[in-house]
C-alpha cells in the first residue's frame, strides 16, 4: 500500500558486488576444490568441475581463473613441488561467498528491481552498493569487473510505482547535507490545499518514500509542529547555519497509527467503515490500524451478501477520507462524525455536478 522510511548508507568496508555470472560459479567451485587440501592437478580440477559441479571449462580459462583469483581476490594459491597439485598456502583462506544459489539470486534481483523505483537521489547509489555487496576486509576488489547479468527473464517480475514528479538534483544535494549535519533549512512550499506558496523554516528529520513520491518528515520551527512536505513541491531550498538536535522520537513510523501513507494527525479516532464487493475482499485481509476488527454487517449485507464493518483506531483522518471515497458505491463511513460528515458533503457536491 505504501512505503515508509529513509535510506541511510555508510562505507565502512570495501565492497564486492554480487555476481550472478558463470565465472562466479567457477571461482566458487575452484575455491572449494583447492580448499579441500587434496592438491589436485589442473586437469583433475577441470574434470571435477565438470563431473561434480556441471561446469565446463578449458585449460586456458582455468589458468586465467587461477590468475584472477590470485590478483583480484588475493587467493594464496600455489602448486606443490612434487605433485604439481594446487593448494592454499594459508589453509584458513576461503573465497568470499557469492550469491550463486538460484533462489537467493532470484530474490536479490527482485529487491534490486524494487530499488530501481527510488532512483534519482544521492542516497540510492550508496544503498545499491550496500545491497549488491558483501563486506570484506583485506582484499582489493575491482567493482567494475563484477556485474549482474541482465537477462530477459529478469523482467518477468516488476514493481510499478505511482506517477511522480522528478525532484531536482540540487534539492537532493542540499537535503542530503541537511540530514547528515542536522541543519535547519528554509524553502517555499505550496501544499495541495493552498492557493499560493508560503515560506517554511524546518528541521529535516526523515525522508519517506510513499506511493511513488518522496516526502520530507520535518519539524516546522515557526508553527512548532511536525509536518510532511512533498519534495516535488519544495522550491528555493536553502541551508542555514542553525544546527538542531534530532529528537529520540523523530521516526515517523512511531507516530503513525495506520497504514494510509505518510499523512497523519495528532488526534486519534475510532473508525467504522462499511464495505462490500471488491472493497470488502481487499480490505478484510489487511491491517489498517490499531485494535482492528472485521465483522459481518447485519444491517446492510450489500448486493452480494458480503458486506462487512471494518473497525480500527488511527490518526490518519485525511488519508482515510480519500481512501473511503475511492471505493465509490462499495464503501461508506459509519464513524467518526468527522469522516461521515466529509463523505456526505462530497456526495452532495457530486450529485449537484452537471454530467453531460
For the record, the CATH architecture of the largest domain stands as Roll
N-to-C SSE series?
A: EHHHEEHHEHEEEEEEHEEHEH
CATH class of the largest domain: Mainly Beta
Compute the number of helices: 9
Content-based structural category: alpha+beta
- The CATH topology of the largest domain corresponds to SH3 type barrels
Q: Shape, please?
A: elongated
Number of strands: 13
Which blocks of ≥5 consecutive residues have pLDDT under 50?
Answer: 1-20, 134-150
Mean pLDDT: 79
Question: How many domains in all?
Answer: 4
Q: How are the strands ordered across the major sheet? A: 8-7-6-5-9
Strand content range? 15-25%
The major β-sheet equals: 5 strands, antiparallel
Give a structural overview.
With 356 residues, the protein is an alpha+beta fold. The chain has 4 domains: 14-18 and 100-155, no CATH class; 22-88, Winged helix-like DNA-binding domain superfamily/Winged helix DNA-binding domain (Arc Repressor Mutant, subunit A, Orthogonal Bundle), CATH 1.10.10.10; 169-254, Roll (SH3 type barrels); 269-352, no CATH class. 30% of the residues lie in helices and 24% in strands. The protein contains 9 helices and 13 strands. The chain has helices at 22-35, 42-53, 59-72, 102-115, 122-131, 169-181, 278-283, 317-325, 337-352; strands at 14-17, 77-79, 86-88, 133-136, 183-189, 198-210, 213-220, 225-230, 234-243, 269-275, 290-296, 308-314, 331-335. The strands form 4 sheets. The protein has a 5-stranded antiparallel β-sheet, with helices on one face. β6 and β7 (213-220) form a beta hairpin. α1 (22-35) crosses α2 (42-53) and α8 (317-325) packs across α9. The longest helix is centred in the last third of the chain and has 16 residues, at 337-352. It starts with 13 loop residues before the first strand and ends with a helix.
Amino acid at each position: 500500500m505504501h512505503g515508509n522510511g529513509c535510506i541511510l548508507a555508510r562505507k565502512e568496508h570495501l565492497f564486492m558486488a554480487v555476481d550472478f555470472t558463470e565465472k562466479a560459479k567457477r571461482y566458487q567451485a575452484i575455491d572449494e576444490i583447492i580448499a579441500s587440501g587434496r592438491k589436485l592437478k589442473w586437469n583433475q580440477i577441470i574434470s571435477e568441475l565438470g563431473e561434480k559441479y556441471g561446469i565446463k571449462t578449458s585449460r586456458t580459462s582455468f589458468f586465467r581463473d587461477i590468475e584472477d583469483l590470485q590478483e583480484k581476490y588475493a587467493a594464496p594459491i600455489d602448486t606443490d613441488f612434487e605433485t604439481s597439485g594446487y593448494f592454499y598456502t594459508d589453509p584458513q583462506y576461503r573465497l568470499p561467498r557469492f550469491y550463486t544459489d538460484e533462489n537467493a539470486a532470484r530474490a536479490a534481483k527482485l529487491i534490486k528491481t524494487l530499488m530501481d523505483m527510488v532512483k534519482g537521489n544521492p542516497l540510492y547509489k550508496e544503498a545499491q552498493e550496500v545491497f549488491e555487496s558483501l563486506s570484506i576486509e583485506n582484499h582489493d576488489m575491482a567493482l567494475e569487473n563484477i556485474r549482474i547479468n541482465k537477462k530477459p527473464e529478469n523482467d518477468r517480475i516488476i514493481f510499478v510505482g505511482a506517477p511522480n514528479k522528478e525532484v531536482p538534483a540540487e534539492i537532493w544535494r542540499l537535503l542530503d547535507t541537511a540530514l547528515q549535519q542536522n541543519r535547519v533549512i528554509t524553502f517555499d512550499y505550496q501544499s495541495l490545499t493552498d492557493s499560493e506558496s508560503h515560506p517554511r523554516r524546518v528541521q529535516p528529520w526523515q525522508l519517506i518514500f510513499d506511493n511513488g513520491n518522496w516526502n520530507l518528515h520535518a519539524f516546522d520551527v515557526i508553527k512548532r509542529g511536525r509536518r510532511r512536505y512533498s519534495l516535488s513541491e519544495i522550491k528555493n531550498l536553502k541551508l542555514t547555519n542553525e544546527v538542531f538536535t534530532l529528537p529520540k522520537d523523530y521516526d515517523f513510523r512511531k507516530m503513525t497509527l495506520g497504514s494510509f501513507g505518510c499523512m497523519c494527525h495528532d488526534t486519534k479516532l475510532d473508525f467504522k467503515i462499511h464495505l462490500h464487493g471488491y472493497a470488502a475482499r481487499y480490505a478484510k485481509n489487511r491491517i489498517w490500524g490499531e485494535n482492528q476488527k472485521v465483522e459481518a454487517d447485519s444491517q446492510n449485507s450489500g448486493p452480494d451478501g458480503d458486506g462487512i464493518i471494518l473497525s480500527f483506531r488511527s490518526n490518519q483522518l485525511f488519508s482515510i477520507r480519500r481512501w473511503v471515497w475511492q471505493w465509490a458505491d462499495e464503501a461508506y463511513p459509519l464513524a467518526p462524525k468527522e469522516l461521515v460528515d466529509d463523505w456526505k458533503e462530497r456526495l452532495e457536491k457530486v450529485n449537484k455536478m452537471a454530467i453531460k
